[in-house]
Amino acid sequence: MHRQSQGFTLIELMIAVAIIAILAAIALPAYNQYRIRASETACLAEAKNYASFSLAAIYDKTTPPVPMASACASIDQATDIDTDITATPHSPFVRTVTCDMNSASCQLH
Length: 109
Description:
By secondary structure, the protein is an alpha+beta fold. Helix content is 46%, strand content 16%.
């Protein structure tokens, strides 16, 4: 009397692993691009906020505060209305943010 075998065969498991590997190969580059865009956007928002706050301080004839970078790896301190601010997003450092202090408008470069 033969017992009916239960479970998966080796070839079925290998096919399942291959399908998972193909899906991972497609998903990882998309995830990395998402992570880069999120880092750049967060730094852009932080730099714009700092530029607006510093511009208000300059117009009030007070010293702009020291930037507290959390979403950005670094933000240049505002000194006057004629000096633009540059901010660098955290890793992977693909693009930088430049803020025009005349209008407090910021762009990714």
